[in-house]
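ok, trying the design again with the full structure, not the truncated one.
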């Protein structure tokens, strides 16, 4: 079972071993916009977001799991833990041909919000989803 926590600067070296996304992980870590998943004290995945990054709403822009740890529920655990850091309507997106990501989002309560063609190579549509997130102690 993975433990989910806020990322810390010392996680960066491990993240760089399996992360291929461009961008500044330091800013995400320092600004507390990243959660990591650990198994046996090894960081095996992370999820990061931008505040106001999609039509003024929070946008989950990265969800990454080390190839050696896939198919163990880590991505699901990271998605499920987003409500510990985010609340209200949140957006996320993936390539329409990414069956694993599409299945994960559809299976964890995210609703389709539309597609944009032209953002990805080979005109693969980018499929956007949204979900209302609430802190664990909120009465909704």
């Amino acid at each position: 079972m993975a433990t989910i926590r806020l990322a810390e600067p010392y996680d960066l070296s491990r993240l760089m071993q399996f992360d291929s996304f461009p961008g500044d992980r330091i800013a995400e870590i320092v600004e507390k916009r990243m959660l990591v998943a650990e198994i046996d004290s090894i960081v095996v995945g992370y999820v990061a977001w931008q505040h106001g990054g999609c039509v003024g709403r929070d946008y989950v822009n990265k969800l990454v799991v080390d190839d050696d740890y896939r198919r163990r529920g880590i991505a699901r655990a990271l998605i499920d833990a987003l409500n510990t850091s985010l609340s209200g309507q949140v957006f996320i997106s993936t390539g329409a041909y990414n069956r694993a990501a599409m299945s994960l989002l559809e299976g964890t309560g995210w609703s389709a919000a539309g597609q944009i063609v032209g953002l990805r190579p080979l005109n693969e549509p980018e499929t956007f989803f949204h979900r209302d997130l609430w802190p664990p102690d909120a009465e909704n």
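Keeping the full-length input from now on. The beta strands are 3-6, 34-39, 42-54, 57-65, 88-95, 111-116, 126-133.
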